[in-house]
């Protein structure tokens, strides 16, 4: 048996999936900057059937091959059902430990500059403040601490200008950081002290030596063009100054011009004007620096790729397992694809490992440059991951 699944209520634990007990249709779904999800069907003859309690039962999935915990979280819901043939069961949905950040609400705090101190930069200071407010409101097992936070916010400053608006902690981190600065964020369990840590970086994964190729482990591949994202003349816009109806511009630090240009892109595409808003930006020099970093990245990859692949390591046909956030060289000569791509989604089929798949997408830098919609609620996250 490749996987074992154990549930826990307080000090009582029950193994619901191993060589003797089975759950059905069990799948782990991981997606970049999203909460992990586990779904499965359980039947009345399983010893854990009556022990699945909403939001209090914790659950752990261990990969028997690697010894690693592939999923850790809690049961969200376990409604019962009866099929047309009379089969009785429960359809169980679980969410990963990152969902604990949904359980606290941040207090109101007026916007202010976070410049850091001798031991941390402004971004780290802001994250420490947010996590401290979370930790003082929740039980010990839900507490999260700052891990590796090394994302570069602006070339001229590592400070951030942020406030809090009584949103959940996770929505605060998503909307205030990921939606503004891009990058990748996750919550992980430390093997050293057993605590939960939040990492935030431009690139969380590693470059793998494993390739994904046609006629080997590639299921499908699609190329798409996104010419509408190209901007050759950018008008950067910052926060509206108090009492003003217009945005902060870079004119005061850019010889009176409100725009910058990407000369290389302009030579290819001509003049294509556009704007991008950095809502937290209050200093013109920082706004210009952010725009200069953002513009060439935005124009770098007008072509995107989406690839589905099989994780052959799960059936011992490949030496290395696929991991979310890692990068792989993807080759398909039939459509002219030869590019390093990131695993942006992973679905692990616990019962049928050979059906496990990954999805690979564009460069992190391309996706980071596109602001994503803030997560309205935990339910919407789960619905997206489940495709419903």
List the helices and strands and how they pair.
Layout: E1 3-9, E2 12-17, E3 24-31, E4 37-42, E5 58-63, E6 69-77, E7 80-82, E8 88-96, E9 109-114, H1 122-135, E10 144-149, E11 160-164, H2 169-181, E12 184-189, E13 196-201, E14 207-213, E15 218-225, E16 233-237, E17 260-261, H3 263-269, E18 273-277, H4 284-300, E19 303-310, E20 327-332, E21 337-349, E22 357-361, H5 364-368, H6 378-386
Parallel strand pairs: 10-13, 14-20, 16-18
Antiparallel strand pairs: 1-2, 1-5, 3-4, 3-21, 4-8, 5-6, 6-8, 7-8, 9-11, 12-13, 15-19, 16-17, 19-22, 20-21, 21-22
Helix proportion: 10-25%
Most strands sheet: 14 strands, mixed
Structural class: alpha+beta
Q: What is the alpha-carbon Rg in Å?
A: 23 Å
Summed over residues and divided by their number, the pLDDT gives a mean of 86
Strand content: 35-45%
Number of strands: 22
Order of helices and strands: EEEEEEEEEHEEHEEEEEEHEHEEEEHH
Q: Tell the overall outline.
A: globular
CATH topology of the largest domain: Phage tail protein beta-alpha-beta fold
> Uncertain runs with pLDDT below 50, 5 residues or more?
363-388
Question: How far is the first residue's CA from the last residue's CA?
Answer: 30 Å
